[in-house]
Amino acid sequence: MFGKMPVELSITLVHCLIALSIHEDIRVKLLESKLLEALLACLQEGNEADVELKIAAIHCLCGYICESQARDWFLNLGGVNKIVQCLMNTSVPLRQAAATFLQLAAREPPIAAAFIHAGMLHCRTSGAHDGKQSPRPEASLIYRSRILGSSCQQPLFVDDPDFIG
Q1: What does the DSSP 8-state code read for residue 134?
Q2: Disulfide check for 42: which of 14, 57, 62, 87 has CB 3.0–4.6 Å away?
Q3: Nearest-angstrom CA–CA distance, 91 and 97
Q4: Which residues contact 108 (CB under 8 A, 6 or more apart)?
Q5: Rounded alpha-carbon distances, angstroms, from residue 142 to 83, 87, 95, 117
Q6: What is the CA radius of gyration of the chain?
Q7: What domains can you pick out in the chain, each with its CATH number?
């Protein structure tokens, strides 16, 4: 869908979709598997020059992932792997957009489970701040640093106790 038009036009169209996603009735009418497929296609690894389009596509996914059908399509269309690729990209703004999406989407157990399986999300059962056992799991994002080929894992702790639900 977006591949046949200039990048600037694609970015503008995605921004329009973001604005429309705010309205529930419009969001539900626009939601189709082809829309999610097109947004996920923007995240393909080969499109390194189109970081701004990737960021816009991720922000757009944030607007639609609140719908259960969109979550199912996201999982079935390989969305987890595409977000993981963005989390490991050298572009800081792209990694930030992907982390924001992960934080929002991981509130749903099936998506959280998929990201845990992919090694990008880790649940802890102990309190991070007070050292006490917490009844709610805290979450931390794990990413592999690509700087200088380092393969170390670094946790990014999330302070939001409602992160996973």
Answers
A1: E
A2: 57
A3: 10
A4: 65, 71, 165
A5: 13, 9, 12, 12
A6: 16
A7: 7-157 (1.25.10)
CA distance 152 to 144: 6
Mean pLDDT of 78-91: 91
| Tokens (6 digits) for 7 | 């990048």
The pLDDT tens digits for 100-143 are 999 888 888 888 888 888 887 766 544 444 544 444 444 444 44
Average pLDDT of the segment spanning 14-41: 93
Average pLDDT, integer, range 70-86: 94
* Alpha-carbon distances of 65 from 7, 61, 164, rounded to whole Å: 24, 6, 15
CB-based contact 114:80 (threshold 8 Å)? yes
Structure token pair of residue 71: 């979550």
The helix (run of H) or strand (run of E) holding residue 111 is helix 109-117
pLDDT for residue 10 is more than 60 = yes
Q: State residue 135 phi and psi, 5-degree precision.
A: -70, -20
Pairwise CA distance, residues 51 & 158, whole Å: 25
